[in-house]
Amino acid sequence: MTDDSPTAAPPSSPPSRLRAVLPDLAPWRASADFRKLWLAGLISSFGSFLTFVALPVQIKELTGSAAAVGAIGAVQLVPLVVFGLYGGALADALDKRKLIVWTEAGQAVLSAALLVNAALPSPAVWPLYVVAALSSALVSVQRPALDSLWPRIVAHEHLPAAGSLNALRWQVGGVAGPALAGAVVAYAGAGWAYGADLLTFVASVFLTLGIAPSPASHAAAKPSLKAIAEGARYAWSRKELLGTYVIDIAAMLFAMPLAVLPFLADELNAPWSLGLMYAAVPAGAMLVSLTSGWTSRIHRHGRAVVVSAALWGVAIAAAGVSRNVWLVLLFLTVGGAADMVSGIFRGVMWNQTIPDELRGRLAGIELLSYSVGPQLGQTYVGGVAAWQGVRTSVWSGGLLCVGAVGLLALCLPKLMTYDARTNEHAVRLREQRAAAPSAAPAQARAEQT
């Protein structure tokens, strides 16, 4: 992952070395729409992570079953697949901003439903699964629109930096949200977490309304099964892209232990650590984002994806065999850092090589690659925990992840040889963006108003 070192240069001064490590703020400075959308995402992700912790904890309290907690992933899977693919077609055919606003408003309604259920004298279990499924559908429609909007409001050369900043936004919410949720749920109840989530969605809607419209490309196909199939054929023809999808699915399928963390905290006699466990993975990811300046100097993105996915599996396996809660937290943090490196370079490969008219549909496939794995993983780890125990479900999943990633890397040589400087798709898109000075039309319109 360090084979792309620059040619020899005079020694850098301490300030320049520091700038080379710190996040690149160029997208933030250059694009007003990027700033608004970034802030909206930060606010809503904070609330979403509150619910992310509160929902499984509430199901655990109501049922006492690891399998019941793991079933959250199962009920989210079908809407994720169906609406993810169709959401990608919608993102190509409709105004992306409108899709983001309406789905964000729908999430606010679902948070209100969770709040009402939690306020009942005897909260029911079934509404928790219904809301989880509906929320998965809304996320599946929104994410392709959101992911395909970034290249329109950010210059091509700023896309790696934008990916790191977007990850940092998610991680701030991912660290603060779970850490706070653990205390809120324990001492005040899940209803307070759901109420806070509702407020964050409302704030996010108002911020998103302030960005410029982002209508469909003139070459975009209307949403249909034919259009979805066209996107799938393109993805299949790009074996390096296919590699990023299957590597991430394998890593998350076998080594995503989040569903059993409430039980792992109990086994370690440290229920106080649950919020910290949920926060550890995004904390590790945030450490990478805060020192992500080096990512712009890496060009062999496929190798970086493979190595970091394997490191994620090693870290999760180590967390599973550790009997000290602080070691568990350390290994979860290391795993989060490795997963972040993988995520950064997957996103750069996607954003720098996929044509605009296909970006929404490919974003729908991307959504499946980084969402189906965790959803299936929750069901897998919950089932193995009920069968063989919590610890076994964690360490065995980590080892299976390492094996699967290694096998896939051998089967997908184009992923391992991918180089952003020479890949034909990356070169073509870079030349197209260079030939069109207004590479971010939505931002151009925003600056003129």
How would you sum up this structure in a few lines?
With 449 residues, this protein is mainly α. The protein is 79% helix and 0% strand.
Characteristics:
19 helices; about 450 residues; mainly alpha
CATH top-level class of the largest domain: Mainly Alpha
Number of domains: 2
**Second CATH tier, the architecture of the largest domain:** Up-down Bundle
Rg estimate, integer Å: 21 Å
Mean residue pLDDT: 81
Organism: Streptomyces viridochromogenes Tue57
Transmembrane segments: 37-59, 65-87, 167-192, 198-221, 242-264, 270-290, 302-319, 325-346, 367-387, 393-412
Protein name: Putative Integral membrane protein
Subcellular location: Cell inner membrane
Describe this structure in words.
The chain is mainly α. The chain has two domains: 194 residues, Growth Hormone, Chain: A (Up-down Bundle); 207 residues, MFS general substrate transporter like domains (Growth Hormone, Chain: A), CATH 1.20.1250. It is built from 19 helices and no strands. Helix 3 packs parallel to helix 7 and helix 4 runs antiparallel to helix 15. It is globular and about 60 Å long. The N terminus and C terminus are likely disordered. One of its GO terms (cellular component) is plasma membrane. It comes from Streptomyces viridochromogenes Tue57. Keywords: Cell membrane, Membrane, Transmembrane, Transmembrane helix, Transport. InterPro entries: MFS_dom, MFS_trans_sf, TM_effector. It is a multi-pass membrane protein.
